[in-house]
Amino acid sequence: MQLLYPEEGGILINSNILQPMPLNPRLLNMPGFTRRQILEHYEVLYRGYVNKVNEIRKLLLSADRKAANATYSYFRGLKKGETYAMDGVILHELYFENLGGSGVATRGDLMRQIERDFGSYHAWLEDFKATGMAARGWAVLVYDRRSRRLINYLLDAHDHGVVQNTEAILVLDVYEHAYFIDYGTRKADYIEAFLDNVDWNVAEARWKKIKSY
Ligand SMILES: [Fe+2]
């Protein structure tokens, strides 16, 4: 089979098949989250995006590129779906990866940068929570290479609101599927539970990597 995305070597095995990341078992024992909430999210939704990426990439192998059209075309539908599904995979992997911790913020370089760019941890926290409450999809703390500062960005969907040349440091899923089993409409309570389980070591490691290049 043709290798469409060889640059992704780490996550592509046996030609172009995307593999789901394993679920961290710690996520099944987090205070404030039931196993059912996490398993529905991981197994049905996240794995669903992985499967769709694979399905779309297979269909792209034979899609008619000569008929590509911006109003409607089969190729356009696949390319739109590819972006949405791949962003869905990436954002969920970042989200699950930065969960399962103690919720206690590390006193490292990332916190110093947060204090520099937001004034204080509490000012950042207030802005991040508000971003989560205002978003329909995601709240993401990113490093913006253009302005060389940290920013909380709002995404209403996986592929709607993404700002280029930024790098994710902390990802919060605020789609209703992320919390409705455990919290119903109490979105603010879910955001508090998320913050209580953030793995700041993961965020710190992402920051260290970002600053290394
Ligand atoms: Fe989600």
Structural account:
With 213 residues, this protein is α+β, with helices and mostly antiparallel strands. The protein has a domain at 109-211: 3-Layer(bab) Sandwich (minor pseudopilin epsh fold). The chain has helices spanning 35-60, 74-97, 109-118, 121-134, 180-183, 187-196, 200-211, and strands spanning 12-13, 17-18, 138-144, 149-155, 166-173. A hairpin with a 4-residue loop joins strand 3 (138-144) and strand 4 (149-155). Helix 1 (35-60) packs antiparallel against helix 2 (74-97). Mean pLDDT is 93; it is low at 1-14. Residues 41, 45, 92, 173, 175, 177-178 line the site of fe (ii) ion.
List keywords for this structure.
213 residues; alpha+beta; minor pseudopilin epsh fold; 3-stranded antiparallel beta sheet; two-stranded antiparallel ribbon; 7 helices; globular; disordered N terminus; binds fe (ii) ion
